[in-house]
Design brief:
By secondary structure, the protein is mainly alpha-helical. It has 2 domains: 179 residues, Periplasmic binding protein-like II (D-Maltodextrin-Binding Protein, domain 2); 70 residues, no CATH class. The chain has 13 helices and 4 strands. Helix 2 packs across helix 3 and helix 11 packs antiparallel against helix 13.
């Protein structure tokens, strides 16, 4: 298999996303489906739409989904399959793309979260998978999304001090180091691991991760400089909104409808879902 060199500097979506997959795409008949190069999963639309904006996540609203930049981003994603033939037909916004593509051998590249290093890629490498990681191309703004499971203490608790003490203990990296962070499932949450070379080395110089010269630019430097928290940290009703958006985009991925048509046809319903009235 041809292996492209990893890139540590992000390139434009059109410049890299349309050209790099070509050497990795094996054609079968006219459908390019034996080993198409890119597998797109749940985070791809949000990340690429966000890369067209300079807005903070807190300011993002449902109204932005029908802006020209957002529609262009969605159409660019669809065109990886429809026009450029370097991605398979999307089967939905799922979170098992690494297992069903890269590890299964059906795709040469995939997009997903860093936790896959610990949940599946580390074991796959021990079984012979030779993989690498790199930052994704961007459209107009360099960006990556940061997500996780926020820990909270409810105001109704009868033991607020004890609850907060537990949350503070649970949040310390050293208390989840071996099983989660060093294993590649969690990323550190404090800035020191992204700014202090000694702490960065402690984090990434572990058997679960790719080589430091590859892991640090993608997992540390780019996250430190360009990460934005995902909207569901701050915005209510994102589950209903995303479910409706995913359904609306089904015809876009297959080419039965343009992104502009799909968004405009469903815009009022998307706004209602965003506002909790869907």
């Amino acid at each position: 298999m041809t292996v492209l060199p990893s890139t540590t500097a992000p390139e434009t979506f059109r410049g890299r996303m349309f050209s790099a997959p070509g050497p990795l795409t094996i054609c079968k008949s006219e459908w390019f489906m034996v080993m198409c190069s890119i597998r797109l999963t749940w985070e791809k639309p949000s990340r690429q739409v966000f890369s067209t904006k300079s807005e903070s996540v807190e300011r993002l609203t449902a109204k932005m989904v029908n802006e020209p930049a957002a529609i262009e981003a969605l159409q660019n994603i669809a065109d990886l399959y429809l026009v450029h033939h370097v991605a398979p037909l999307s089967s939905g916004l799922t979170d098992d793309g690494v297992q069903r593509s890269l590890i299964a051998g059906t795709c040469a590249m995939t997009t997903n979260g860093a936790w896959n290093i610990g949940t599946c890629l580390s074991a796959a490498r021990e079984e012979g998978l030779n993989y690498g990681i790199a930052v994704l191309p961007y459209m107009k703004e360099k960006v990556t999304i940061s997500t996780g499971g926020p820990n909270v203490v409810f105001s109704q608790t009868e033991h607020p001090e004890e609850a907060m003490e537990f949350v503070k203990w649970y949040a310390r990296e050293e208390n989840s180091w071996d099983a989660l962070i060093a294993a590649g499932i969690w990323m550190p949450t404090t800035s020191g691991y992204y700014e202090d070379e000694e702490l960065t080395t402690k984090w990434l110089d572990n058997p679960a991760y790719p080589a430091m010269e590859e892991a640090k630019p993608a997992l540390c430097d780019y996250v430190r400089d360009y990460a934005k928290p995902t909207s569901w940290y701050y915005t209510n009703n994102t589950v209903d909104f995303n479910n409706l958006l995913g359904a609306a985009l089904g015809d876009v991925w297959t080419g039965n409808m343009t992104a502009e048509q799909a968004i405009n046809d469903n815009y009022d319903a998307l706004v209602m879902a965003h506002d909790g009235m869907g």
